[in-house]
């Protein structure tokens, strides 16, 4: 099934302004010169079960969009947003998902966005899901994975529940 999708397109200043004024803006300023180095303009549209859709706007130079001064980027898992999960019963129609993203953004900001033909695909994550029929099969499958190894990481195995390979470079460490 299709999981995370990231799309972008060129937009005009009016659309940019609407989204900009409803977003979180992170800026970097050179304090000695007062020069604005960059801005990241991002908003999050909430879906079911707090699954969110990321909406970002910015200068079209990022994507080399010649006919536009601004871009809009939309990223998220449409399946997770509309169903609250992405573990099964997935959506395989990319056009349906992109149209859904466009509609969600249009409704959230009360704007009219470019049609499907004007959007570019930047990211597409596919997930392969398995129907293991019952909980006993799920438990046996998880336990069979306890023999897996991951280079330079230590396995934490929780019988009948899960595997965990911690990323120590990002975890809090006791350095004693």
Sequence-ordered SSE layout with sheet pairings:
Blueprint lengths: L1 E10 L1 H8 L3 E7 L4 E12 L5 E8 L10 E8 H6 L10 H16 L10 E7 L8 H10 L11 E3 L3 E3 L12
Antiparallel strand pairs: 1-5, 1-6, 2-3, 3-4, 4-5, 7-8
Helix content: 10-25%
Shape: extended
Radius of gyration, rounded? 21 Å
Strand order of the largest sheet: 2-3-4-5-1-6
Structural class: alpha+beta
Series of H and E elements: EHEEEEHHEHEE
**Mean pLDDT rating:** 85
Largest sheet: 6 strands, antiparallel
Multimer state: single chain
Question: Tally of extended strands?
Answer: 8
Low-confidence stretches: 171-176
Percentage of residues in strands:
25-35%
CA-CA gap between termini:
45 Å
What features would you describe in this structure?
The chain has 176 residues and is an alpha+beta fold. It has four helices and eight strands. The longest helix has 16 residues. The termini are far apart.
Keywords:
extended, alpha+beta, two-stranded antiparallel sheet, disordered C terminus, single chain, six-stranded antiparallel β-sheet
In short:
This protein is an alpha+beta fold and 176 residues long. It has helices at 13-20, 78-83, 94-109, 135-144, and strands spanning 2-11, 24-30, 35-46, 52-59, 70-77, 120-126, 156-158, 162-164.
């Amino acid at each position: 099934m299709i999981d995370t999708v990231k799309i972008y397109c060129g937009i005009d200043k009016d659309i940019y302004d609407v989204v900009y004024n409803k977003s979180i803006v992170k800026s970097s300023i050179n304090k000695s010169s007062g020069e604005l180095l960059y801005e990241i303009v991002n908003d999050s549209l909430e879906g079911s079960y707090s699954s969110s859709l990321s909406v970002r706007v910015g200068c079209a130079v990022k994507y080399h969009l010649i006919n536009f001064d601004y871009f809009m980027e939309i990223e998220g898992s449409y399946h997770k947003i509309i169903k609250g999960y992405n573990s099964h019963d997935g959506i395989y129609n990319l056009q349906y998902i992109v149209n859904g993203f466009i509609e969600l953004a249009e409704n959230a900001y009360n704007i009219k966005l470019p049609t499907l033909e004007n959007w570019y695909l930047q990211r597409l994550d596919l997930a392969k899901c398995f129907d293991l029929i019952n909980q006993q099969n799920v438990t046996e499958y998880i336990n069979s994975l306890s023999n897996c190894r991951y280079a330079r990481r230590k396995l934490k195995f929780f019988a009948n529940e899960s595997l965990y390979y911690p990323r120590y470079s990002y975890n809090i460490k006791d350095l004693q």
